[in-house]
């Protein structure tokens, strides 16, 4: 079981700038919890995501001496990937590849063919520099634009990634549109079809639907879940009304309930939860 904490996703849509020192303090609290991976920041244009313009400074302030948690940075293009790859502390580089052409243009200003070409260059860079590319299949459970979507469409995208030897693919519910009826069959189709790929669930949700979504992904064999404490955040490029991230505290409670070990330090988790409240004001 791998839990990926995503403070980057929680912060990116907030209009009020979180001071760099506050980000560093919060992320250091998260690093003590024992998450598999911390999606900590993003090397993208500060005009696009002004909240994350201090990612390099934040990275310099992180205490990595007492943690096994790996760092993941999101990028939108090859230049961002090159910046991320230059930091030895970062293990994972994440890139959003959209199943929806409309959203790919909105999110990275690229067509799908252009994004795939960029992704191939990123994968080559990661292989040369010892990084692992994590590809997020955005709008992986449908889209609001009328663009083509089906499980077979997602499988076709996944095959292109497999052909590039991409090893980690997170199906991303960018607008919270998924249901158990779409989540479980999709994971059941993909997981056995691509044994060389580790599939993750990056699910956005409303407060009333989180459990059925997690249950569906878990039942289908997914063992990699993204979350954000407090369910804060969402994708500012996807909709004006942000659908929240999957609350990490709900994931932890659910897996405890079913007897699935997460390996988290409960005391550090409580401290991180308190820190999240002060950062995000909940």
UniProtKB/TrEMBL annotation:
UniProt key word Lyase: yes
Domain Pyruvate carboxyltransferase per the UniProt entry, residue ranges: 1-270
GO BP, sorted A to Z: ketone body biosynthetic process; L-leucine catabolic process
Molecular function as annotated in GO: hydroxymethylglutaryl-CoA lyase activity; metal ion binding
Domain of life: Bacteria
PROSITE patterns: PYR_CT
Protein name: Hydroxymethylglutaryl-CoA lyase
């Amino acid at each position: 079981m791998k839990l990926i904490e995503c403070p980057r996703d929680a912060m990116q849509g907030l209009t009020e700038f979180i001071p760099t020192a506050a980000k560093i303090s919060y992320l250091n609290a998260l690093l003590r919890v024992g998450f598999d991976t911390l999606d900590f920041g993003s090397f993208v244009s500060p005009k696009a995501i002004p909240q994350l313009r201090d990612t390099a400074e934040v990275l310099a302030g992180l205490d990595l001496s007492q943690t096994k948690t790996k760092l993941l940075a999101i990028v939108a293009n090859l230049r961002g990937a090159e910046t991320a790859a230059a930091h030895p502390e970062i293990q994972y580089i994440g890139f959003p590849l959209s199943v929806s052409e409309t959203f790919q243009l909105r999110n990275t200003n690229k067509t799908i063919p252009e994004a795939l070409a960029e992704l191939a260059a990123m994968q080559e860079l990661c292989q040369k520099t010892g990084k692992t590319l994590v590809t997020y299949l955005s709008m992986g459970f449908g889209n609001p634009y009328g663009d083509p979507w089906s499980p077979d469409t997602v499988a076709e995208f996944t095959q292109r990634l497999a052909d590039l030897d991409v090893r980690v693919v997170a199906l991303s519910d960018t607008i919270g549109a998924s249901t158990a009826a779409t989540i479980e069959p999709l994971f059941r189709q993909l997981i056995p079809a691509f044994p060389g790929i580790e599939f993750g669930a990056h699910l956005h949700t409303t407060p009333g639907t989180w459990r059925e979504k997690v249950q569906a992904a878990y039942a289908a064999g997914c063992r990699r879940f993204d979350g954000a404490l407090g369910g804060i955040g969402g994708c500012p490029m996807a909709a004006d009304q942000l659908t929240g991230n999957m609350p990490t505290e709900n994931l932890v409670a659910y897996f405890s309930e079913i007897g699935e070990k997460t390996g988290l330090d409960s005391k550090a988790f409580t401290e991180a939860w308190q820190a999240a409240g002060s950062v995000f004001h909940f």
